[in-house]
Amino acid sequence: MNYDPLHFLSLRNSDISSHLDAIGSLRLRVFREYPYLYEGTADEERHYLNTYVQAPSSLVVLAVSGEEIIGATTCVSMSEGDASFRSCFEKSAFPIQNICYLGESVLLPSYRGRGIGKVFCQMRLDHARQMGAKIAAFCAVDRPLNHPLRPADYRPLDGFWESLGFRKHPELQAKFTWKEVGEAVETPKTLTFWLKSLHEAQ
Q1: Could you read off the pLDDT of 67-101 as tens digits, one per residue?
Q2: Please, are residues 180 and 33 in contact by the beta-carbon 8 Å criterion?
Q3: Is 179 helix (H, G, I), strand (E, B) or coil?
Q4: pTM more than 0.85
Q5: Contact partners, residue 50, CB within 8 Å, separation at least 6
Q6: Which residues, at least 6 apart from 198, have a Cβ–Cβ distance to it below 8 Å?
Q7: How confident is the model over 121-147, as pLDDT tens digits?
Q8: Residues 90, 83: Cα–Cα separation, whole Å
């Protein structure tokens, strides 16, 4: 397959506003896949993404091919992010003011496996260090191995995250509620955090 030239666009605060619908549409498309199986709405996306417009520490990076946004990734200081993400840290020994929360990293399927995920991660880690964070953290949904909607060729990303220096912390979990594919109503989901010390060698 031939691809248009790819470039990355870094956005802060109010510059993010004009891209909210495009980012939301991308999130809805990618997170509908396993393991998130997320069935959200455009309004819910705008509400969630507005956090990054308002937070002084936020960064959104877009991957653009031609004129199409084919990927997006986000990060923000844990202290400025959604309270549901930081609640488990407030009960732990990790000061939230020292943590950069790495939000989603979404990419269209045809662009995966080209190193874009590593670029996304490095750009967010660079931003985290610039804002003085000591720890980078993200969370991923937990699914049982026998989940009925798990594709036969599904490959968990644990090895990828470990190769980037992240370590899973089962003691740090967040609870979120959303409606997933096949559900009639919203149900709670558990997400487990992965952490990386920003003092480690890059």
Answers
A1: 899 999 999 999 998 888 888 998 888 889 999 99
A2: no
A3: coil
A4: yes
A5: 20
A6: 100, 125, 128, 129, 133, 134, 135, 136
A7: 999 999 999 999 999 999 999 999 999
A8: 10
